[in-house]
From TrEMBL, chains A, B, C, D:
PANTHER family named among the record's database cross-references: SLR1406 PROTEIN
Pfam families in the record: HbpS-like
Protein name: Glcg protein
Length: 140, 140, 140, 140
């Protein structure tokens, strides 16, 4: 289980890392094990639709139990499968890096983080930094 | 325009006020003038569906330009109207206190805050406290 | 069939009449006989969600072949029926005055106008003025 | 912020330019910074579903902060990403030219224009003309 304090730690770390690395304004969400939002923040200057992208990255990860990189590999191999998955989850998936699974020490998936705003790879990198700063294991 | 720092100030204030007053665990969201999320937090122990309630309270307020109390009065007078409005906005309205308009010094609506978790009146009270702590005017 | 020039005449007339009568900022839409938008305008100062309300008022009218007043009477008598209708049309109905049928000289429904922003009765009044200014018959 | 007068100026200019250039009947929408309609017009002879295309072009642009040309480049490189984005925004995106960002003199995105009816490139061209006629900067 992720506390609100841990979720905020992940988001603050990801946004601070992005600012330090000179990335574009980021948006970040942390979802619980059921795919429901615990915390979200959108940096000043980010486009208004960034909540939806961040949520979709994280939601698809936790609902499928697959990080964004595994989802992208599947989309490259079988685009129609990930398109169907998008419909199955009412549009709330985005099969690119930036949706990252959060695992506890037993290895159980306890939630997911979604980051968007820069390149997908940079989004994933700061999400991993955030998850690790809160003491959890990331699978991007 | 509401900055992320101001949005977080509103949410922290509302959740701290709720804890101080002995309210149940609260969830709070701040939306921009177009109804898009800027920041959200769900206190430990709150039910998983609280994001959706908080969002609906705030979304209905900003899209209609009416606080939760005015929406509730309309629902009491004409339930079928507010039911239709719920359909019009894809279910993202909740006509009770806790959806509060955020106005700047010129009086313009620059966003809305949605709080849920305790009684509707208590939800609205801490939302107002949060908005005022960030230096804005609240219409609940 | 309604031309774009006629649709714009209806909208300009409705908004000008509202301004002259001291009504709140209005939003107005004209739909064709299939319920599809021909023209829309939102006056400065109107809430962002007014497009959706205007569209719903007009869409319900043209799809049901009933003006807003007849829909409201039905909602007063049988709220669950109009609630079901709202679901049937994906939320795009609003059973109050302000959705007005547009009939040509043969009496055929050729579209509908939706106005929102002030009281429902005032919304309907300026919609009727707009439709008549374009040379058609209004059924509110 | 875009006034109704400015939005109508953009639309009138785009449709007039299209007629002058001998393009097919055009439809044009202007959305505010939150993706909500300010004004729309569909030229006589345009197909009934043109509102939805115009809205999708403009909505995707403003929500993502990317013009239609940048979206098309992304779709060419990663079709499954833009397909997922379409699901994320409930179908309201269209990754081709004709969705154009509107920037004010500070460079901030204050809305988007969507034009449809002729080739995507011609749609974008008249949208740019409309936005510039209203004194703003276009990013197509």
């Amino acid at each position: 289980m992720i506390t609100l304090e841990q979720a905020q730690k992940m988001i603050e770390t990801a946004l601070a890392q992005g600012a330090e690395d000179g990335l574009k304004p980021l948006s970040a969400i942390v979802l619980d094990a059921g795919g429901h939002p615990l915390a979200f923040a959108r940096a000043d200057g980010a486009a208004p639709g960034r909540f939806d992208i961040a949520q979709a990255k994280a939601y698809g990860a936790v609902m499928l139990g697959m990080g964004g990189k595994a989802q992208m590999a599947r989309a490259e191999a079988q685009a129609y499968f990930m398109a169907a998955v998008n419909g199955i989850y009412d549009g709330k998936t985005c099969p690119v890096p930036g949706g990252v699974l959060i695992r506890d020490e037993s290895g159980a998936v306890i939630g997911a983080m979604g980051v968007t705003g820069d390149t997908s790879d940079n989004d994933a990198k700061v999400a991993v930094a955030g998850i690790e700063a809160a003491g959890f294991t990331a699978e991007d």
